[in-house]
Predict the structure.
Amino acid sequence: MFGFLRRFRKEQPAPQIEAVAEAVVKEDAGFIIEPETETGAGDAQHGNEGVTPPEQVFGLEHATAQSEVLSEGQLPVTEDVVAPMPDSPLGETHTPMPQPATRPGAKPVEKAPLKQGLWASLRTRLARTREGLTEGLASLVLGKKQIDDELLEDIETRLLLADVGIDTTRTLINELTQKVKRKDLNSPEALLEALYQHMVRLLEVAEQPLRVLSESKPMVVLVVGINGAGKTTSIGKIGQRLHGEGHNVILAAGDTFRAAAVEQLQTWGERVGVPVIAQASGADSAGVIFDALQAARARGADVLLADTAGRLHTQGGLMEELKKVKRVLAKLDPTAPHEILLVLDASIGQNALNQATHFHQALGVTGLVVTKLDGTAKAGILFAITHKLGLPIRYIGVGERAEDLRPFNAREFVNAVLDHE
Ligand SMILES: Nc1nc2c(ncn2[C@@H]2O[C@H](COP(=O)(O)OP(=O)(O)OP(=O)(O)O)[C@@H](O)[C@H]2O)c(=O)[nH]1
Ligand SMILES: [Mg+2]
């Protein structure tokens, strides 16, 4: 059941259907917009709120050549950044949904009882991402009694606007059209429900969480992607998650391109309580990650998360550098890297699909982290990427804080973006 339909039904009996539909859609617009109440819940322009800028935390004097910078347990965990985990399995603190504005004389729309826990929280986090889809579909279906070509075309347009992409939209619409032709669907609501089921099925392919391989010690995760996609931040978040699950995690500062990159990773290491192995910036990235693997082995680490410098897939030389990292690691462990994790910024829309395709061709990507879904990104891009590449989406990033990373769950995601319950 869709939240907007349930609210709509409770609100009014059938006779005044059209007028009320319009009112509810307008009110829903106010209902789902997320307030700027949570630290770091905004987009990247908000900066690293709650995060001490790297330059204030570590100087490069900590990163001497060929030296290990932090030893395990040496640094305190910064308590203001690692938030308490009070009331949900993932430690989410819930932001109440905003109340709809009430028109004078209007019967107030009864607010849906918010489920507590991860589900409600993910809905809140994805509020801006899902605006386009939910509101758009709500306005198409509410008050409409029959399925016709116009409705199918309008749904198609909505999916395209939400970045689902031409091929994937066509596939979804074809499936719906077939069902309509077979008379399997007899109302716009049933059509929407069928769309929901197709979307879940499409994304379920990508629901393959990252598993720490006990037979590979350490399991090497090479993190790649373009500049600013969220690689370093995601490494910090994954580090915290795996460390919290009891794994012995080490971070490798393989982005030797920017001085600040090493410091940024060190800050994350300190924050989430895991050691970082780094060398001075300008060192050979493959060499740094190779040394880090040796050190991680010596310590019996379970996981080595290796950062790399951002690059475009069009920068041939830099892509070669990543291939070199792979080759060099394989000298120590022929099965390494065990995971090539591509971090994609969802807010760049169809470009993310383009990047994923090229990085995958060049490196053989084994998993994705899709970041910035808390911002103005359109959720449809996940469908396009999964439809085209079928790669596992290991995590989604829904904010800048250490705990703003979720293992990807297809149904939960579609529920959140389509306001389905
Ligand atoms: N809102 C939001 N911001 C994010 C998310 N993930 C990362 N960011 C922000 O995106 C910006 C870039 O993140 P980084 O982790 O530095 O990106 P990077 O890929 O390592 O960048 P380079 O090292 O320059 O290639 C930072 O301001 C992060 O806080 C997310 O899921 N949501
Ligand atoms: Mg980085």
About this structure: Residues 14-116 have pLDDT under 50 and may be disordered. The longest helix spans residues 188-204. The beta strands are 219-224, 249-252, 276-277, 303-306, 339-345, 367-371, 393-397, 405-407.
